[in-house]
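request received
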Amino acid sequence: MNHLTEEQFAELLAASPRELREAPAGSELASAGAHAANCPECTAELSQLRDSLALFREAGTAYADAHIRRVPAWQPPVRRGFSLQSPYWLAASAAAILAAFVPLQMALRHPEPPTAEQPMQVVHQHTASEEDQALLDDVNRELSESVPSPLAALVDPAGTSTEASQNAKQRTN
Amino acid sequence: MVPNNIQMFSPTELSVEAQARSTPLDNIDGIVVLYQPRVFRFLLASLRDHDAAETLTQETFLRAWNARASFREDCSISTWLLRIALNLARDYTRTGRFRFWKRVATTALEASEVAGSLPSDERSAETRLIARQQIQDIWETVGQLSNRQRSIFLLRFMEEMEIPEIATATGLPLGTVKSHLYRAINAVRTQHKGALKERP
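response:
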């Protein structure tokens, strides 16, 4: 008695129960099925291999199921809308604030050199301070004199005292 | 002449309309709960590496999410997801990095680990031992198949997909899928026959 060919055996094994049921009469699959139904040897081999494949599937599924528990469930990436609390927005705000205040601080610490208009003001200020200083010097000098300047004429009416004393010194020498 | 009952959209309105259109993938949380184990299982059995399977599972859902507008509903969501996973796995196995890590694999999956995870039930100790050996044998034989044969074999016998669904997922013609599947089955059958003869 002929048995199933390799192809017929594979076709029978690969066919799902639905495909076996719905196989058209006279087709390769239907005739292979008819042979297997009447051949205990082919039926036994098919049955043993089907059982082994079922065990293979059962063990593979159990193993994967045990390990999938360790795999985090995939989450879709979150698309962020505009939000004042978004880190990007906060970073941009901080950058803008820094950009505004750092130059200001730099300017306060290191004043810029005078521009073309500033020398006139400086010269003017310089002149005023010199006048003030001269006035103060005059006041100090007058205060330090033993005889006030309005009374100086009374002390030496001829105004020669100095010259006379100098001539006397020269003579003694 | 455009009939009056057809609403015309400007290109801008059309794109807004297309964006606003809801897709079955909008409920991504539910889809992840439902399909993440399946995608992970397929990738784990294909690549036999925990880390790679985890990474590519995450990548599969990211790609699906980004391309959700292009999902035409001409196949089921699971087929579409497995198609993405399959492409990622194929790209991954082509890289030199994969070939290197395959040689020194520390996270590689051993046949005994998988066989040992068979749920304990009313099987006798002897039956369990035989079952574990059968699983190990098939696992090792499937590992020796070409990438394409292995993917198709796993889609059929691990994911229980029918051949037309596998053709959709792989993008291959029906005849090509059958050809690869039958070769894979013959390899497993030959090994299985030999193992049965060796057993007392």
